[in-house]
């Protein structure tokens, strides 16, 4: 089990004691053919996975869409089996009687295109690791660059297929927040409420460069082979560095240090040997390496690019785009976030202007407070959804 | 010219208009034989470069030692020639009539062991890139792991050779602050004043992992060859990534974005081609690649380790170590620093306790405010040195 999962498990155990019932969920598959991407390409067949919690009401007016984060997937709540060690990542706020109350709402969550966890049996996605039916080989870099808007449009196609014409709300953390904001801009008449958790309305120059750090080690790996590694050794070394960077940057130093209470700067091995590592480094990189089993390196590159190309509304003028939003909006950045820092959400909130709500999640996790401390905003979230 | 130098030049031009006179300086070499390192090794011959500004008084009581930052060197102030585009990095505060007034003080600045810029003709250092006289080949990884304490002890030997028994002050930014703090702990009777700028008294677990990010890409580069690359291709790809990370992490997003005002997330090339880069990425990595001409990859690995092993006093108990400090102390972290964030300096300040002074440098640069915004604390620094 990787580090994040262990941490999530600890949090989950604390939270779950308050909720006796396990919500059992299952994965479904959605297919859309001849999908047109924002950059003008066509993907013959897109398959994605999705889950739903609660019951769709008769006039299909009780739908809440959950959009997932960078390394996340559609498993936002519940368990596939009672014996699962962990529920979905936002189980603290999604379920019967919870902030996003599945006794009232029909909650839908889907896997994005180019989902990181291409080899997770519970994820269904389409991306560079997918077999191209025309060649019977993985797409690799022949897969088109896709954007957050494309993620939104696949979700739109899924909702269309279900006859859903209104979203009571769209709610997502981090990259999920990008999708949520873009939903409110792209389909203003369809989105009644939008909640951005630890999010931003635009990838600025700094974020583009910060994200490039996650791509570079993969491209630097000799096994990467311009993305054609599917028949040989995978670029595990590069992917490990990438995942270690992602993990550390999502954590505030306070929680990182608290997770390594026995760290000793004068540890003998690294003091004597330049090749020896500190236990904290083995901890971070060891967890990252374990995660490479389920994650595809090319998918990380495509996710990086989807985030780099993000600007809500996909035009030249973010301010005008956000003025088109008709949804009630709530921004919930995390005070200690060092990745998508609160000023980013603050800016989007201010550009929307009158009526937009803003509050900061307090916590010691940093960016991950959007997952692990979301429970602290349960009442506010619940009230917002009733407005 | 690399990006940092361009930025420094801009700042320097603004500042220098207030000072008509150019202080001309020259580099000297200091040699110490049979140098014993903290980890118990011996280096037969250590050569380092040093500069001095001002005049040593008769009783040698007016010495201020300046200790440099990670990618810095002994060129803290002045110019080698009138035609140099840039003066030393702290020229804004070191010189005649400036905060560290060379009309009063004799200011010494030396290159560290394993200095990053092994190929800079103005740097003299000893490290893995140095020819081992016993083998007539570069030391490579046979060079012992060295620590901040070793940097301090080379400086101590230099001062001993000059007959200097007291330091009016030791002042340094970032890694230079580590040296300054350790000076005050290691030689409490010798150090009268200590100024830590953007510093910390200990590498915590988070910092150790953050620093590892700078080492990993070098080790990942196939040209690295366990440090034996001196006869072949150098690990430029890995070193480039390392220097790009260092540059970005030293800059706050605000200044990073201000430096790239024309960034467009919908730039055509990266939207169409996963291999195409944004101009901001070319800017960051292009500048990093240019810097690889002067910088040795193994030296970066050794600097990373010197920082990772740092705990002032080099014992198990930082609190006790800092209680031994007799110097007057002043801590000047930068409010927006995301690398050695203010809480680190705050902790050291509090552990020293009564009499220690603390103030934050305000600025938009982040960590680099310790260099580029130091002028804003000139009066405070000057007053502290007179106390």
Automatic annotation (TrEMBL), chains A, B:
Its EC number is 2.3.1.-. InterPro entries: AB_hydrolase_1, AB_hydrolase_fold, HAT_MetX-like. One of its GO terms (cellular component) is cytoplasm. The active site is at residues 174, 337, 367. Pfam families: Abhydrolase_1 (PF00561). Residues 143-370 form the AB hydrolase-1 domain. It is found in: Cytoplasm. Residues 1-20 form the signal peptide. Its main location: cytoplasm. GO terms for molecular function: homoserine O-acetyltransferase activity. GO terms for biological process: homoserine metabolic process; methionine biosynthetic process. The keyword Membrane does not apply. Gene3D superfamilies: 1.10.1740.110, alpha/beta hydrolase. Keywords: Acyltransferase, Amino-acid biosynthesis, Cytoplasm, Signal, Transferase. Belongs to the AB hydrolase superfamily. MetX family. Homodimer. NCBIfam families: PRK06765.1. This is Probable acyltransferase. It comes from Thalassotalea litorea.
């Amino acid at each position: 089990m990787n580090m994040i999962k262990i941490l999530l498990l600890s949090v989950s155990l604390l939270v779950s004691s308050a909720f006796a019932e396990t919500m059992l969920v299952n994965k479904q598959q959605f297919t859309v053919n001849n999908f047109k991407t924002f950059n003008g390409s066509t993907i013959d067949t897109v398959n994605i996975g999705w889950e739903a919690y609660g019951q769709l009401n008769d006039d299909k007016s009780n739908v809440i869409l959950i959009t997932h984060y960078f390394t996340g997937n559609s498993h936002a709540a519940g368990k596939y089996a009672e014996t699962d060690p962990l529920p979905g990542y936002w189980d603290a706020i999604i379920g019967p009687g919870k902030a996003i109350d599945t006794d009232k709402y029909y909650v839908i969550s889907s896997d994005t295109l180019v989902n990181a966890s291409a080899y997770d049996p519970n994820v269904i996605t389409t991306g560079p690791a997918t077999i191209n039916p025309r060649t019977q080989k993985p797409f690799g870099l022949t897969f088109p660059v896709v954007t957050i808007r494309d993620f939104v449009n696949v979700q739109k196609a899924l909702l269309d297929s279900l006859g859903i014409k209104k979203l009571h709300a769209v709610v997502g953390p981090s990259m999920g927040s990008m999708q949520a904001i873009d939903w409110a801009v792209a389909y203003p008449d369809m989105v009644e409420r939008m909640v951005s958790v630890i999010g931003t309305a635009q990838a600025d120059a700094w974020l583009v460069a910060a994200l490039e750090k996650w791509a570079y080690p993969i491209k630097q790996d000799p096994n990467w082979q311009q993305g054609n590694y599917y028949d040989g050794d995978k670029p595990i070394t590069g992917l490990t560095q990438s995942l270690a960077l992602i993990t550390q940057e999502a954590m505030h130093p306070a929680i990182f240090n608290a997770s390594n209470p026995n760290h000793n700067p004068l540890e003998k091995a690294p003091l004597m040997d330049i090749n020896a590592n500190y236990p904290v480094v083995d901890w971070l990189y060891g967890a990252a390496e374990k995660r490479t089993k389920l994650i595809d390196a090319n998918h990380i590159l495509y996710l990086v690019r989807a985030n780099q190309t993000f600007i809500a509304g996909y035009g030249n003028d973010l301010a005008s785009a956000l003025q088109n939003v008709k949804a009630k909006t709530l921004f919930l950045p995390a005070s200690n976030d060092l990745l998508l820092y609160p000023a980013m959400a603050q800016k989007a909130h201010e550009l929307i202007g009158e009526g937009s709500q803003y509050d900061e999640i307090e916590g010691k996790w940093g960016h991950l407070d959007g997952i692990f401390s979301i429970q602290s905003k349960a009442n506010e979230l619940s009230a917002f959804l009733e407005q």
